[in-house]
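quick one before i forget lol
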Amino acid sequence: MNWNRPIKAAAFALVMACAAVGHAAPKDYFGIHLVDEDTGRGVPLTYMRSVYKQMYISDSAGYVAFNEPGLMDGKTDVWFDVKSYGYEELPGAFGVHGIGLKPTAGGSVTIKLKRKQIAERLYRMTGYGIYRDSVMLGIKPPIKEGLLNAQVTGSDTVQCAEYRGKLMWMWQDTDRVGFELGNFSMTGAVTELPSKIDPNKGLEFTYFSNKPGEFAKQMAVVPREGTNPIWVDGLTVVPDEKGRERMVGKYIAANKDFSPAEAGILVYNDEKNVLERLTKFEGPRNGSQTPGPTGHVIYLMDGKTRYAWFGNGLRVKADFASVSDPKQYEAFTCLKSDGTANRENGKLVWQYVKGAKPVHGRMVDDLIKRNIIKPEEAPVQLKDVDSGNTIHAAGGGVAWNAYLKQWVFIFGQQGGTSNLGEIWMSTAKSPEGPWINAKKVATHAMKDNNNDLYNVVQHYELAQKGGQEIFFSGTFVISFSGNKWPTPYYNYNNLVYKLDLSDPRTKLPEPPPGLSKATSDEDKG
């Protein structure tokens, strides 16, 4: 069954459906609740397609509010094809997958879905209508702003850092409800710490706006010509010389063609609640290749020294002066200054060196091709523990896990069943690896409806039950999927998942010895 439909036709159908139900009361709807068979929790992002080709998509609580004129008498059979990423299709009848329902105004039905993937999809973090169908059915959402918050309808690539007793969240390019163009200089919000909230239920964002109720304001302030995007990465919180917490990040300001116009370090102004330029880099590609914070930072101890570690082979002492100075960054390398392998008694030696380039990503592939290092010496050698197939990582984040007493890597895959929508986990004895065995935990592959979940972030700040439950999110888009139909409400927004590490399916073979002796600054033994 082909689910592809022209975008205009999909949009028209959605408008017509909204027009049909726009003035209905909760008692006029037929409530369809799609739930996880094991947990009983509602399943977000479940597609229900009718024979007349209308698409209904469950909200973050797993509800669909159904009201179609002529179909609400309780006698008419309405057939739905039901699909959800990571779940089995309903068995149906006569070999046809799906379910038949007899909708009635004020009636309801619960449909149980059997989850195949390990991770559980929890909710949509951002955008309009997170609990739209719940509200239409008269059901109270678990968060206050269940429909529209700060006029935000879509946000790309999340950053998170614990800062001054709150969790600080920032997103890159952000869509608004009132105009086609939105905020391209970072959007910000805060939540309470996990000790005061339950991330299983949702995240209550308080956005930064110039006035209450207005669209989220621009958080990155870089005086320059033009209004092209400013992207901030690697939010890092460190003490200054007086012991005061400071938050910095690396920015890249784009030209019209999105190439780097300039790059540097921004620092958070607590009075103005914006990130202001501290340092402008000089060098290749307008400073964009200069070392600086990147990714989702973690904090390590090497001996008695605390470091900020960025996941791309870079670290720096975790203090304001060091993080702000590109010359203080250290690269993880196995090379001597002449480019040859650094070996002792034939064994490759890894170490952090100031001013060096990190041996990471494509550089590792190049060294293997040139026979400078062996494939089995690479810090990343990811393979599917079930099939033995090689996995090419695309982004992700590393964090210490107190439950496993190991480092956990949650990452996306390049070129999997969906192009950028397959999510995996791996474990190691040190944050640098070696990362070898991997297990798929979530998918966004569906016949004729693949989607991406890119720039995956492991939200170690939200971990529950001593690290048994970990959370990750990514941006749900069609950008690289080949799919031409953006999912209404969900496209260009962040999806949150939970992974329960007590699930025996997550168990991986014991990792080999780590490449460093680094420990987490939170590891107590």
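fyi The longest helix spans residues 7-21.
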